[in-house]
Records
---
Amino acid sequence: MVIKNSTYNKVSVVMFLLISGLTMFRAAEALSMNYYIMRCPMVELIVKDTVNRALQSDPTLAAGLIRMHFHDCFLQGCDASVLLDSTKGNTAEKDSPANLSLRGYEVIDDIKEQLEDQCPGVVSCADIVAMAARDAVFFAGGPVYDIPKGRKDGRRSKIEDTRNLPPPTFNSSELIRMFGQHGFTTQDMVALSGAHTLGVARCASFKNRLANFDSTHNVDPDIDTQFANTLIRTCKAGDNAEQPFDRSRNTFDNNYFIGLQNKAGVLSSDQTLFSSPQTRGIVNNYAMNEAMFFLDFQQAMVKMSLLDVKEGSKGEVRQNCRKIN
Ligand code: HEM
Ligand SMILES: *[C@@H]1O[C@H](CO)[C@@H](O)[C@H](O)[C@H]1NC(C)=O
Ligand SMILES: *[C@@H]1O[C@H](CO)[C@@H](O)[C@H](O)[C@H]1NC(C)=O
């Protein structure tokens, strides 16, 4: 169709410029791999270097940083809600019993301080958490991957939101359902659970499996007898005693899945992945093929890092990761 009316043409040119201008504005607000390349070119270097130094002095922090990212993204999206301190009128996520010993807050603060020096008000705490988790995976021996940046920080962090974290007593169907609600496939869920290749659980998180388990069993029948004795010995030191998830708690590898095949999963939610026919095949694949686990894990982590992200004016860039501006 040819439009002859020149006034109409002018109007449509203006309209076109307006719409493409808006699109460009939106594109500038959207997440991208190169989000900080002009705004704060040192960001990747500063995060990597700070995470590297922190892990050199305490390798167990890799687990802390990865878990922090998971808890952040599952509640209110990846918006650094997990970092906010409680205030007079508000108990934050981090003070829930379900914070389950989150660690690594000082590493995030350290990175944020350096970035505020370099490029004040530019890099969000949510992006810092996501990048720190990514670098922790790498320095612990896991896959290298990149994530889009440009997340904004949220303004809400409430203790009651932690109800939406999966409890360690969940069975495989319940895990599939909860992760499915966030858009994850069963395979994504099993791969993400593989983060338990790093770190520890405290006795409080699994002692229900060791005594008065159910009406017919004293000890959970899904635990190898010898491993049950190991867990019982760990728990002699109390609720806060730590049990590594696998044989190599600071190394990102597929030993976690091999452990599940040997009925040496620490949490019910770990062992259920092997007990249940819905997920056993995936566990067996990852136990046999570490490269496959790494590939699926990195894809699922990128997906997790994009959960309900806040872009543009939906959030802010906090000056201090522990409080809203
Ligand atoms: C599938 C459902 C999941 C459940 C039920 C679960 C539950 C738990 C529990 C109970 C602990 C031990 C806390 C304690 O006793 O102090 C733990 C630790 C941990 N979780 Fe998960 N988790 C799940 C998925 C994930 C995901 C998706 C990630 C990350 C991608 C993750 C990363 C970690 C890490 C790294 C630790 C060790 C933390 C440390 O050593 O400081 N978990 N998880
Ligand atoms: C976790 O929550 C407990 C209260 O249940 C609190 O005493 C503790 O300081 C919290 N841990 C962190 C790291 O915020
Ligand atoms: C998982 O738990 C739910 C809720 O307790 C239960 O209805 C379901 O039967 C369980 N599924 C399996 C496979 O045990």
---
Amino acid sequence: MAPGRLGFHEGIFLLLLAVAGAGCSRPAEDVVLITIDTLRADHVSSYGYSRATTPELDRFFASGTVFENAISSAPCTLPAVKQLLRGSFEAHAESQTLAERLHQRGFVTGAVVSQHQFYKQPDAYRRGFDRFDIQSLDEVDQHGMTARTAREVSNRAIAWLDEIPSNRPFFLWLHYFDPHDPYEPPAKYRGFDAGSVSARSGDRRTDLEQEKRSTTERARDAGYIFTPKDVQHLINLYDGEILYTDSEIGRVFAALDARGITSHALVVLTSDHGERLGRGGHWDHCASLGDEELRVPLFVRVNGGPLTGRRRETGQASTLDVVSTVLALLGTPQEAAPAVARDLRKLPPTVVPPWPSGTGAGRRAMRTGSSSQDREAPGQSSTRWRAIRSRSGTWRVAATRRNRT
Ligand SMILES: [Zn+2]
């Protein structure tokens, strides 16, 4: 534990007690945002998954709040993360980020990122960070994908915790990439795949997709290349990547605990989008508004406890709500907060809206943000219907029972 840090926070705590009176909740001092790329909510144990994929997340957030019904604002990394960092669909590169807002408040800001695509528009992601530790291009693997492992992200994050000045609060953003394909967890984390009879290596970019490319014309949308055994094999490996990432994030949680940070920090963990995982022969993401791609885990723990009076919230939350919530907790409501962003402490219960019903005005909307998929849908959706608005403003209602948009 860094004595200076504790002294600072104790001082803040006493000051707040004097102002607010003993027994009142105090704002968190430090802010930790963890995003795990490509993590589907229904593959997280806390969300009912039958496998123990996330023991560290489950343990750490058992004292926090689980948002059972959370969606990302987009099914694709770049718009989803840009919007998450700003709490707004209007995620222009020049719009203010959470890091900038916190930096203005005197926070030390740092990010450790495993995601090669952020190089394409670095200012959209790095703005406001004193240190933005993104992998170098030589950390991209032979598939052109990110190769900075969860272990490396955690190592760098833990080292950064020891460099923070003792007299300033901090904001730390960590982005892990391992559950993104190709699914190749370290050998220790391949237990879910024990006994698999599949001959596939698990690297579908070199095997399965190469095979698919060769028959693309005939196989498009047919999905027959992926046998049930292939699908299960790859899901096994995907789950192994989640378990591996969970284990490494557990080291960060332990580091926060050991430094006395957890008790006065706001810790948020979520994902940028899900993954189709072979349904109908489809993999990847960035392709639909189905729950496989949009539903993400969302955990919040503040000052060592839950964010709200309940451990589990069922109202529909969005990754867009994170910035609003952080700023509200710090006593700085977001100026001109976008109508779609909410304080997660004040979520209304989930309401299944009747479809179709007009233009969708007043509902929470989502937009993928990419030019090829620029469409909107109310965040509140039933299990059967989802409204989608094209760029021209025309609304249509899509059935989601078959997870098609
Ligand atoms: Zn992603």
